[in-house]
Design goal:
heterodimer; A: mainly alpha; Helix Hairpins; 5 helices; 0% strand; elongated; B: mainly alpha; two-stranded antiparallel sheet; 22 helices; 74% helix; 1% strand; globular
Chain lengths: 126, 538
């Protein structure tokens, strides 16, 4: 499972970086969004094997230690904290995505182009 | 009443005012009053708490959200570092906000200008107060989101051609931050700064290695914070961004945004990622030192080469950030105190210069140095304010910049003398670039007046808020110069808290959290060496 996740993360990263090298802002934006997904996936990949450094606490997810039930083996419990992190990151990413897309719409209305080259040249001229 | 519950007000006040700003967005007058009150009250609260904490035992106030115990819940921590930055940033925001009453038209202000300023401050305050890495990410996002909106405020063609750079870069930076935060959690099992500091201190005290990849992780986070802070290889986004924004907003950004990145380095690196004799320290410290030299020097060269006021000031931000990174690169208690003092004085002074630039633009209709002149005769008060701010930036003795630079350069002389030389050289070039603005704008004879399109000349008296904002900031700058002693007392305490994480850890995690490391010295090797030097030379 970890291997599959790792491959997923790698492929997502690769695709997003490929998209970000494009010269059209739309593709770059898509690349950035995919990068966010890759980041979230990589956090999921890490959440399976929780480590806790204090020897006095059991090896396991920190949040669940308080109400740890010895009858249930630790390997079946998934650490919920990374999922909370991802949830937050997704929500933030969603808002930023909405903003970026509307920014691109306004940019193309004002300047008539979304090509990075043209935009960069305009910035220098003015 | 428990005083530590008050610190949540720094977050609640701007957030609440921001929400009110959405509801009452057409009542511009009401929002101006509410917004100024919100910023002034947070500034007063920060100053009051700082004065109160001078006699406090540890000088750190902690609130655990929802009373969840420390490493599991969200901690909000007010220590000397946060306190000084909160006070300075609220004052700077107040000055810029008042200034904006003159430069942003009332019609434009009705379009969510007020809530965005408040939400920006909400993010900034949260960043200064939060006690864990993930909330730092969240606060960065809140701050950036508001800054995107403010940057494109007005939506001119030029702004639109430049905005995407800033937005995309910061998006990539944030993504790396999320990955970094996830990796930190995966490696150490915690995100709380105090818990992380304890994790590192434990490893150091017991002579164990840090997890594999910790160094790479430190570098990734340094990249993120460096991008926000505009340090050497990552500063390219800054000049264009600050150039296109409205001038009051540019002042706000110049004061606030890069400093939040530097704050994040100051908060996490001395205590956690570059603490002790770990591998990460050996890699990070030289990187910081080299990038400090380049940031200082290339920044000021850029400033000297430009020929309009806003660009000079914007590129100058980079050069000044170099001094702060210089202080961080030394990572001793005194250098960190100097870095902090330099940060707050820079926030105030740089914003003040941008506000002056706004008034100059209103007088001359341009920020091109060749086409402006004769302002000394037309507006002596502006000349006075500009002169004090510019000389504070350069660091002439009785003014604030001097005390910041003095401590950093003196502290660096023993271990990294070449950086100190760069620092002095940069100071000289800073003087040159400021004199350039001074002689072109104020001393040279009046240039041919720029023809204004009919109907665009501002009504008389409309610039009063602008003068008020600039005056407020220049008074704060003067206070930082002439009242450097009390501010430095607090700054030294902050440096102490960063160089020796014991107080911070016990304040957040509880007094028994370090019992198993009883009696061990948690200071970093750089600080220990500096302490030994201090004792050798009385």
């Amino acid at each position: 499972m970890t291997l599959i996740l790792a491959i997923c993360v790698a492929v997502t990263f690769a695709v997003s970086i490929y998209l970000m090298t494009a010269r059209e802002l739309k593709s770059i934006a898509m690349g950035v969004f995919l990068l966010g997904h890759a980041a979230n996936l990589s956090i999921i990949a890490m959440s399976r094997t929780p480590v806790r450094h204090e020897p006095q606490l059991l090896k396991g997810p920190p949040i669940l230690n308080a109400s740890f039930n010895p009858a249930q083996p630790m390997s079946q419990i998934v650490d919920p904290l990374p999922q909370a992190l991802i949830l937050t990151a997704i929500v933030i990413g969603f808002a930023v995505m909405a903003f970026l897309l509307s920014l691109l719409v306004i940019t193309s209305r004002k300047t008539g182009t979304l090509s990075v080259e043209v935009l960069a040249r305009e910035g220098v001229e003015e | 009443m428990n005083l530590s519950n008050l610190i949540i007000l720094f977050i609640v006040i701007p957030m609440g005012t921001g929400v009110l700003g959405v509801l009452f967005k057409y009542q511009v007058g009401l929002m101006r009053v509410l917004g100024s009150l919100s910023l002034a009250s947070t500034a007063l609260l920060a100053v009051g708490l700082l004065i109160h904490l001078r006699s406090h035992e540890t000088g750190i106030l902690v609130t655990q959200m929802g009373a969840w115990p420390a490493p599991y819940g969200i901690s909000v921590v007010f220590d000397s570092l946060s306190g000084l930055l909160l006070a300075a940033s609220s004052l700077v925001a107040l000055g810029c906000y008042v200034h904006s009453f003159s430069t942003v038209s009332a019609a434009a202000q009705a379009r969510y200008f007020h809530p965005m300023v408040q939400l920006l401050m909400f993010g900034v305050n949260l960043a200064f107060l939060t006690g864990d890495l993930f909330n730092l990410f969240v606060s960065f996002e809140i701050m950036l989101m508001a800054s995107y909106c403010l940057l494109t405020f007005g939506g001119t063609r030029l702004q639109m051609t430049q905005a995407y750079k800033y937005v995309l870069l910061n998006l990539v930076g944030s993504t790396i931050f999320v990955i970094g935060a996830g990796l930190v959690y995966g490696m150490t099992g915690t995100l709380n700064f105090a818990d992380l500091a304890r994790f590192v201190a434990e490893r150091q005290a017991l002579g164990e290695d840090l997890p594999t990849g910790f160094t790479a992780l430190s570098i990734a986070l340094l990249l993120v914070f460096g991008l926000k802070g505009a340090i050497f290889p990552l500063w390219f986004w800054l000049p264009d961004t600050y150039y296109t924004a409205n001038v009051s907003i540019a002042g706000l950004f110049a004061g606030m945004l890069t400093k939040v990145g530097i704050y994040a380095i100051a908060r996490t690196f001395p205590m956690i990622f570059a603490h002790g004799g770990s591998e990460a320290t050996k890699v990070v410290m030289p990187i910081l030192a080299i990038s400090a030299a380049f940031t200082m020097f290339l920044g000021v060269l850029g400033a000297v080469s430009h020929h309009n006021i806003r660009r000079i000031l914007a590129v100058h931000v980079i050069s000044q950030v170099g001094y702060m990174v210089f202080g961080l690169a030394l990572m001793t208690q005194i250098a960190l105190a100097g870095c902090l003092f330099y940060m707050i004085q820079h926030m105030v002074v740089k914003s003040c210069l941008f506000l002056c630039c706004g008034i100059i633009e209103r007088h001359t209709g341009t920020d091109d140095l060749d086409r402006s002149g004769g302002l000394l005769r037309r507006d002596w008060y502006l000349a006075l304010v500009f002169f004090i701010a510019a000389m504070s930036l350069v660091g002439l003795p009785p003014l604030s910049g001097f005390f910041g630079k003095l401590v950093i350069i003196r502290e660096g002389w023993d271990t990294r003398w070449w950086l100190s030389i760069f620092g002095l050289l940069t100071g000289a070039l800073t003087l040159l670039s400021m004199l350039k603005i001074w002689s072109y704008c104020f001393w040279s004879p009046q240039a041919a007046a720029v023809e204004r399109p009919a109907g665009e000349s501002p009504p008389p008296g409309s610039m009063r808020p602008a003068y008020a904002g600039a005056t407020l900031l220049v008074l704060v700058a003067l206070f930082l110069g002439f009242g450097a002693q009390p501010v430095y007392e607090i700054a030294f305490r902050a440096g102490e808290q960063l160089a020796d994480p014991r107080d911070y850890i016990t304040a957040v995690l509880g007094p028994e959290s370090l019992d198993h490391l009883a009696g061990r010295d948690l200071r970093s090797p750089a600080e220990l060496a500096a302490a030994a030097r201090r004792e050798a030379t009385p």
